[in-house]
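Morning!

As promised:
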Amino acid sequence: MLHLNAPAESAVVLSAVTRAFESGGERVVALENVSLSVALSETVAVTGPSGSGKTSLLNIVAGLDRPTSGTVTVMGRDLTGLKERELTAFRAQSLGIVFQDPHLLPGLTALENVIAARLPWARRRVLEPEARKLLKAVGLGSRMNHPPARLSGGERQRVGIARALLGQPRLLLADEPTGNLDAGSTEELLSLLDELRSDLGLTLVVVTHDPAVAAIAQRVVRLSGGRVVEDRRQAAADRIYVREVE
Amino acid sequence: MALQEAMAALLLAGPSHGYQLMATLEAELGPLWETRASRVYLTLARMEREGLVTSTRVPQDNRPDRRLLHLTPKGRSVGERWLDGQGSTEDAVIRLAVARSAMPTKFGALAAALVSDRTARLQRLRELRRHASEGFQPEALEAEIFRAQADLRWLGQVRDRQLGIVARRRATRRNASAASERAG
């Protein structure tokens, strides 16, 4: 049995989680009896078509939504009994979240955007050195004083990643992180995420409809109609065909 | 294209003659694909010599006799292995088209197997790209990565839509039979 604040053996444990709500007089079941766990340092892709429940699942893991039934334990903490303020503090201190659109504040620089989300919990002079390091790590060392309008889509998403990693969370959640990017920027961002995951010992959960993005994970969990329909490991091919120059 | 494997897999649906096999394949694949009758008949002749099929003569009124092809156990094994996704999977479009027509119960598993195969390839390509920095190597690998991305996205769509795709079967079969009848 897991206790509050116990050391995490798994990064995420969902146990019989259902999320249902009323919409237009009908009961909509976004997630149905979902049980799964994510080990520490694992990379898991949660995939499925639109409406399959992927974002609902991520919102519940992030504490942005509550299940209708079932339990949710993240980094050893049972989220189901926490109050809103406790959830907000937990997210700020224990998780990093990367969204499809990083929603950077236009009036702030890249550096200020990275720092802003954690300011209520720590002082700027404590956060700034780490924020600078993270922006360098994501390749924006020379652009940290630029406002979002002077950054490309890929660069803005890198700021989003740096912001998510400030405070050294052990768990990084990403919801369609490459959704707004072209093929080349997608590959650069995925490579960056994989590098950071390895360097920082992160657990990474990526929600995506795109199997090319899901391919970065060691394990893929596929949802359909709010249920888990597939949960399998995936690994790189040992060999690859070689083209002959004719 | 793995014509021999495609012919063996089409025959999993039951005995047929060469023209009907060609018509079925062309009907399934549409205007971007062509099968040459000469290649098909040479392939079927080779399959008979190699013991993958046997043939029987079917007399017809006012028309040349037809050769009805029957799959042997060896031929069945070739067809089934191909539809299980084994071997080089460069011919994903053909395999899925044939599965849809001849063995629709295998379509979903084949699509899933192809997604796994392409995922493994994309992971390997990305590993190679991480270590490539000389000459044109990064770009040469990126060309393959972008192709693999597109391939995987398409296969993901096919897998997700499998029920609707398989449900189209009957209309295509009637068209293939009608074309075959007109040709005699």
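Residues 98 and 239 of chain A are 33 Å apart (CA to CA).

Hope this helps with the figure draft.
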